[in-house]
Amino acid sequence: MLRACERTLAMAAHPLRLAIVGDVHDDWNAIQDAKALQFLEPDLVLFTGDFGEENVELVHYISNLDFPKAVILSNHDAWWSTYNLQLGPSEGERDGVQAQLDLLGKAHVGYSRLDFAKLKLSVVGGRPFSSGGRSLSAPRLCKRRYAVRNLKESAEKILQCNSSSKNPFLKKETHVNWELLPNVKLHNRGHY
């Protein structure tokens, strides 16, 4: 495995430059943070969510950044919708989650894959609106939007992203031994 990776890296025309941005929590300076990204000159920016409590304005700004990007919304990006899901938005009130998803379009990789052909790279998104841990953070939201009711269905949905990939690294069959899952220790490192 190590030799294959070394050969693959040696054949690359230039190293891949990723910028990973997460847990912004409303603390984004439009001018300075955009300049920081320009300075880094990333080939791809991965946004891992928690922009703020359904901060549609910030997500609108992020969606307009002129960089190749992939985004996964996290638990704070569905903060109000998670608690008000049974009632739905009040008359005249916007659905913050849907507004963010509409702004991001295909850049949102929740339970999906986004191929970057020029980079020869595919990004497979995981469980959207997650805060980590052994259960779905927003079970009603995940059930309504993605027909996912539990972690097993969540994992299966993520693995389905493999099947149609043109990326040879994702073509490999992936199997999960579900009997081992109860023995896996998942740690939440302060992501709430």
Automatic annotation (TrEMBL):
Residues in Calcineurin-like phosphoesterase domain copies? 16-155
Please name the InterPro entries in this protein's record: Calcineurin-like_PHP, DevT-like, Metallo-depent_PP-like
What is the protein name given in its UniProt record?
A: Calcineurin-like phosphoesterase domain-containing protein
Protein's organism: Sphagnum jensenii
What's the source species' lineage?
A: Eukaryota, Viridiplantae, Streptophyta, Embryophyta, Bryophyta
